[in-house]
Amino acid sequence: MALTGSHTTPHADIEIAELSVGGLLQTVAARVPDKTAVIECHLSGDEGANITYADLLAKSTKIAQWLLDHYRPGDHIAVWAPNNLNWFLLQLGTSMAGMTLVTVNPSFLENEAEYVLGQSRSRAVFAAKEFRGRNLVDHATNIGERLDGPLGVHSLDEEVSRILADQASSEGAELPEVKPDDRCMIQYTSGTTGKPKGALLSHRAVVNYAKFSAAGLDLPMGSKWVNFMPMFHTGGCIYMALGCVWNEGQHLLLDGFEPTAVMKVVDKYKAHFIWSVPTMYFQMLELEDFDSYDRSSVIVIGGGATTIPPELVTRLEQSFGAEFVMLFGQTECGMASQTVRGDTLEHKSSTVGKAMPHVEMSIQDPESGAIKPIGEIGEICIRSVCVMDEYFERPEATARAVDYNGWLHMGDLGVMDEDGYCKITGRIKDMIIRGGENIFPREIEDVLITHEDILEVAVFGVPDADWGEQVAAAIRVKPGSNPEDEALMEFLREHIARHKVPRQWHRVDAFPTTASGKIQKFELQAKYSPAKA
Fold first, then answer.
1. Cα(418)–Cα(413) distance, rounded to whole angstroms?
2. pTM to 2 decimals?
């Protein structure tokens, strides 16, 4: 039935799972104990550990028991390290011990990590001894000396290896009962404005985010998932890692991204699912030996975080012989919507699909909260079992994000059609006000990305003495192409009003991005604003 307003009611095609993360692992391990759960893959080409679901449960249990000997249920345990199996084992172990995992970006400098570890009230941190030439254990030790409360500092790989090698450690220790509404993890937002905020997610939210997302991919049970997305982000440790557990699949866990390494993993293990962002897909497709890798096993390729031009969707589907699905969500709620297999090219490239199971979605007036008519721009809001409990110890920020009716205000502007498909038109904070006119960068980006010479684009506002703000565009062009500014402006004038056409044009070789692949427009604004010139 066609919608009469931009508001969908939740569909319950899938049951809500009343499980903890540990409960999920126990359930799957009991069902398929001997199936391979995780294969460690390295950018170097070496293969690491290869463990079954029974092994995964046993090792996670042992870590949980060790944690309970040294810390208490409810404590916050941080991990500050790049992707590897020990990271995943610690994630599962803290969950089974009734502790809350705090994820820290390994790229953070000492002062950035200090803020996260202090604000989250972390009781311990498991850090990498080496990451891009830095010893994070040493940095964590320095931080611990400055924090008000005690901070246990452990080397992730050394401590986990010792725990698993110690045959006598904590044998038989009883694990606590962990309930679905208990705290599971604190995930920090990108912090594009001010200090990052810690989204506190319950076990129920985490488990069902993974369940609904995995079901939406419609993959055969036991599929092989290639995961090179950072584990400190929800996309890596929930969507990919726990989604794969729901699928009873093989988690091909890479310790980072490098296009050749990814293609080798796809070829070697006959992978079925890849999830990435456009920048990374471009790097894969542009490999000179791309056609030498066997991609015939791939069934689904996923994307999100930014605009996906129709040309890229078509090229990906043809190059991999797979179906593309578009995903939309954020740290505070997991995935809110997605397209599904069989959707049209128009849906896959210009919309973010329909609401996920048990997600109520609406387009609201940012000022009044009124539901917008079909086709009118407003703020995308959702109510879902997967929405965060709060921003940890940030009540005012929580109240701004989640209103008294339980709607999470996502900060994204969008429109909904009568079939429930939602299209992103921009971010509220990205809106440019030029001479009193509201300009939405996404509208301009959607046109520019169709230009034959442009691979990626970001439109943003810069200060202007006469107009308040002026429209600027940063573009990455195809190799060998060099379209002139005036030609691009003329191209845009054929599709949008003249006042929306950028007056500043900047060529870039790469965009500053968050860990999830979202372009950091504030960095572009800082770099290209006249005051900074």
1. 17
2. 0.86
